[in-house]
Amino acid sequence: MKKIAINTGGGDAQGLNAVIRAATLSAINRGWEVYGIRRAYQGLLEEGGIMPLTQDTVRGITHVGGTILGTTNRGNPFAMPVTLPDGTTKTVDRSADVITAFEEHGFDALIAIGGDGSLTIARDLAKQGLPVVGVPKTIDNDIEGTTLTFGFLTAVDIATDAIDRLHSTAQAHERVMVVEVMGRHAGWIALFAGVAGTADVILIPEIPYRVDKVCQKVMEREERGRRFAIIVVAEGAYPVGGEPSFTDPEAQRLGGVGEVLARQIGGATGKETRALALRHLQRGGSPNSYDRLIALRFGAAAVRCVEQGEFGCMIALDPPDVASIPLEEAVARQKLVPIDGDVVATARDLGVSFGD
Question: What GO CC annotations are associated with the protein (predicted)?
């Protein structure tokens, strides 16, 4: 009998629970025992951090957002924060402790669900001998080797719905509306939602923008009698020769570019300009049907990899099938928007400005 563990790390994304359910049921149907590690890898180092996963545990969670295992952005076992007696904190490498605890629990394999950071941790643990299968998760869709990551299309749906709703109020008040969406280094959400929501300007990290070009587009619409404009900007977008905006520079927490742009556009054009940052709304709620399907397929495929003894790999969508690729390949670089790709070309053909 195999005894496997599942964890979820990094930011949450719609579909995490669907992966957990698929992996759990696939393993139980093979006669295996399944356990969940709470809060990424921290549960291995804490009392009560391991929970059994049964058919009852995962019943009815496919459509539920978040993760029943909990998650954290600060669970890197190679740099875990430790509080010292004087109240200060430092980071220490506890990877050996994690592997020891994993072995003491008698686990035969780990299914690690996460984004680029979590998958990098999984790769490094695999190099130390941990039998791990990675499942890619991020609404940013920036994982190399997989056509899509679950959560991405749901985030696009949420952003597109917001853009749709802003059209009517922007037109009624003859305003410029700047919608800030997530996307640290990759502008997939901004691009897909911007095109689907018929935005006038789309700004993404892959194409540094010029504010004067953005204002030029706004005024071109004004001259044609279209006295409003919709601008979609990824949180990691930045001007030519400039840097991204941070809500917390010390922690390198991106955000605020929408507000900066709104002030600049309003000052340059005289147009009333408002900014709206969707932020974590894009992570919340139920996954759409396609993200549920991807997540369920990924979870089942991960168990098949465990069954075949295929470790140090990541599940990937390679339409029409699901395949596996080496973790090393998956985290070698981020998957960015190709600026000469079809979707960008389509947007330009439709008259969308990228501020360049």
Answer: 6-phosphofructokinase complex
